[in-house]
Amino acid sequence: MKGNKGVTVANGSATIADFAKQEVTMIDNARKKYATIPVSQYGSQLEAIMPGDGAALLSSMKTTCESKKPGVTEVIQGVQTEERDVTCSTTMPVPDGAKQPAMSMKFVIKIWSALPIERMRVPALWELSGYELWQKYFMNPMGASSKSGMGGFMAPMLEAMGKDQSVALRTRMEMFMEMPSLVAAGAAASSTPFMKMSNEVVELSVAPLDDSLFAIPSEYSAASFGDVMNGLTAAAMASAKVPTGAGGASNVSIPANVKAYVPLLTPLTRTDPDAKDVQGMVEVLITVGQKGNVEGVEALGGPQELRKAAIDTVSQWTFRPVIRDGAPVSAYTVAPVVFIDRSKGPFGFLPDMAGEERKGQLAEAMPRSPQQVFADLEQDAGGGDKTRRSNLPGPLAMAALKAGANEKAGVYAAELLAGADSDKKGWNYGNAIHDGHTVLGLVALRRDDVAGAREQLLDAGKTPGSPQLNSFGPNMTLASELLKRGESGVVLDYFESCRAFWKMGGTQLDSWGAAVRKGETPFFGANLR
Fold it and tell me: What structural domains and CATH numbers belong to the chain?
């Protein structure tokens, strides 16, 4: 904070609050764009970009919280704090007629907040508490998200966490998932947290700050709020990583002979596990040798009773070898092994936190560029039977596009569409039509063929849909790129086509359409993929 301004900087973005003008400026440093809006509109702008059709589901989730102070104090950054414990339980009902019982989540939160007297003693705390109150009462992002149902779902937790209106210097949260089907399968209920999060203030200072922190760089250009949020969301999704835990990548043990980590490899030959009384899924980490044989298997998650059987099964599989510098190498990959008795209905899978951390560590220790991802996928696509190959053109087309291999992206997209046309009753038909035309449209744009891209966008909207498209909605990447070329008419037509299969997305399509008609870029969020 400085004078009448405050700034928050995180992950390549910045938010500048002007207390005197009552304005908020969102800055996308990667794309050198910014959007300034009155603080009175901040909440409504967030509400406008929220998916509206999840409200029924989220509002049906019930959250109850208990808050207590165990009387524990601690000094953090020279400030006397008091611990408060918050425990919240959320029940998530399942659709009518489903065999699986309701699932629930439990949040165990510990908060160390500055004692009230400390806010008067420490100038930095006084300023910080004032900034937090201003954000809460004027920006009010959670209040604005009530349309999506998130406000009602989160309100009890936020109320419990912010009960004493003090500055939190440390927050630790553990999330547990309780799935009755897993408990019935022998898994321990809530014994291991599914996710851990920790935040702590590492410095408090009132040292003078440079004015440039509170100013918009002169070379940055103004954009709509939705456009800036699109950029920030895309950047966050691209950089998202599974937490690596203490020590990060340097803390992971990797045998000297293992030279790569390719998370998704398709077996050339595989056997299915023998049926068991306990059903569920075991995720395994596989060491694929230079000849494609399985050199080792490690269970990353799943019921303990199924792990040995899963390891025995995977040990018989074979793969295409992974190539580095023109030669085959030993490499890690990950695969699910499913034990299922369909007569017993669906089952759940609860990932193991340690397994998730291990995958994150391996990805960080052995990173791959988009070009390497595409090369690995092309190598993996060789050999095997017709069924195996039929599942790969879609991922190949997308990977080629991201790697800048436009010609190959077009070839694989055409193969995807040809395969779909020969199997119109196949499970992936709707996805193939949508993805194939989307890729071809993006390839056309890279050749500056706007007319071709328009045609491909409309063809992508003619998909009959799929379970994925019907639930999560269409890919808006091509539509977003065409909007940048001023092609709002065809994008609005595309929105209308998507209504035929995306029944859940009516409100969202209305919101996007309204933004386009006003000459703005909608916030597409996770639909940019």
Answer: 5-239 (no CATH), 245-367 (3.30.2420.10), 370-529 (1.25.40)
